[in-house]
Amino acid sequence: QVQVVESGGGLVQAGGSLRLSCAVSGTIFSMNRMGWYRQAPGKQREFVARITSGGSTNYADSVKGRFTISRDNAKNTVYLQMDSLKPGDTAVYYCNAHLQYTSRQERDYWGQGTQVTVSS
Q1: Which residue in 4, 19, 22, 61 has its CB near the most CB atoms, within 10 A?
Q2: How far apart are CA 65 and CA 108, in angstroms?
Q3: Tell me, what's the pLDDT at 12?
Q4: What is the pLDDT, as a whole number, of residue 27?
Q5: How far is Cα 23 from Cα 72, in angstroms, rounded to an integer?
């Protein structure tokens, strides 16, 4: 059974840093496109960052220059390094994993989310 589990959230002061991790466990053929999304209270879930299997990245304008997404394929893990955090970054952060789980099938998986709170 495939699982996607985020970790690394917490409470940090404005200007601080956190690193989120997203680990994929279970039997998979490949870990393809991976991404981070976030949802603040009362708002819709929004895109934060994405990394392809080849390592290409793109970011939401609101986090560009402050957040860095990376991946370790050997560990089936993707990271989100978040620097210069602002109170507006407060949200539950979700990992989205586009996985090939059989030789012919692939689909998106979501983690349960990890809370990031940035105090002013």
Answers
A1: 22
A2: 27
A3: 98
A4: 87
A5: 10
Single-letter amino acid code for the residue at 43? K
Strand, coil or helix: 29 = coil
Burial classification of residue 12, based on how many CB atoms lie within 10 Å of its CB (0-12 exposed, 13-18 middle, 19 or more buried): middle
Write out the DSSP string of 40-104.
-TTS--EEEEEE-TT--EEE-TTTTTTEEEEEEGGGTEEEEEE-S--GGG-EEEEEEEEEE-SSS
**CA pseudo-torsion sign 23, 26, 27, 33:** negative
What pLDDT is attached to residue 84?
Answer: 98
- The single residue listed with the structure tokens 């609101």 is 62
Query: Taking all residues of the chain, what is their mean pLDDT, rounded to a whole number?
Result: 96
Which residue shows structure tokens 């939401």? 60
The span from the CA of 5 to the CA of 45, in Å, is 18
